[in-house]
């Protein structure tokens, strides 16, 4: 159970970073 929760935590962190990267890309494209 603990290991599964840890993996889920890592996945959510990756998703958050991915979302932030996409957000930055969209904002830089909008500025052009």
Topology of helices and strands:
Blueprint (H helix, E strand, L loop, with lengths): L1 H30 L1
Give an overview in words.
- 94% of the residues lie in helices and 0% in strands.
- It has 32 residues and is an all-alpha fold.
- The radius of gyration is 14 Å and the shape is rod-shaped.
- The termini are far apart.
- The relative contact order is 0.11.
Assembly level? single chain
> What is the succession of H and E elements?
H
Structural class: mainly alpha
Average pLDDT metric: 80
The poorly predicted ranges are: none
> Which value, in Å, is the CA radius of gyration?
14 Å
Bin the strand percentage: under 5%
Count of alpha/pi helices: 1
Query: What percent of the residues sit in helical stretches (DSSP H or I)?
Result: over 70%
The CA-CA distance between the termini, in Å, is 47 Å
- Number of strand elements: 0
Largest sheet: none
The coarse silhouette is rod-shaped
Give a short synopsis of this structure:
The chain has 32 residues and is an all-alpha fold.
Distinctive features:
0% strand; single chain; rod-shaped; 32 residues
């Amino acid at each position: 159970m603990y290991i599964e929760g840890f993996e889920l935590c890592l996945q959510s962190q990756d998703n958050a970073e991915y979302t932030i990267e996409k957000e930055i890309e969209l904002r830089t494209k909008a500025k052009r």
